[in-house]
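U., I forgot to send this yesterday:
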Amino acid sequence: MAEDQNKNIARRLWETFQSGDLDDIDSFVAADAVLHSTQDPYAHLRGPERVKKVIEMYRAAFSNLGFTIRMQLAEGDCVCTLLETSGDNTGEFMGMPASGRHGSVLLTQVDRIVDGKIAESWSTWDSLSLLQQLGMAPAGAHPATT
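Result:
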């Protein structure tokens, strides 16, 4: 039962990412939560403040931002979520001007849930593939595919 509850907590993050409604992030992200990611410039922040900044950054860069959960696995206090994310690059992204192109990538995130809140997260995604799709990186390299 606790594992199903943990899955729901992890799922709320992606629902919030998609909706852009940041009002209740404090209810499911711990005040001192740590996000292990090299894909955002907010490493100096923790907790809901960092999550809000990351969501705002991606929502400003991509219109039609969407997430489809493909799989969720839970064991103990950890939830692993595999999802597909896509959107149209209509705003600045990682210091680069909007390309107007559509991009789609798979993302994997592991969330550790403590006392009903995300306390720690590890995420990885194919940033090279996304940058290639957006025309921001040369298409010569071949990232892993599924």
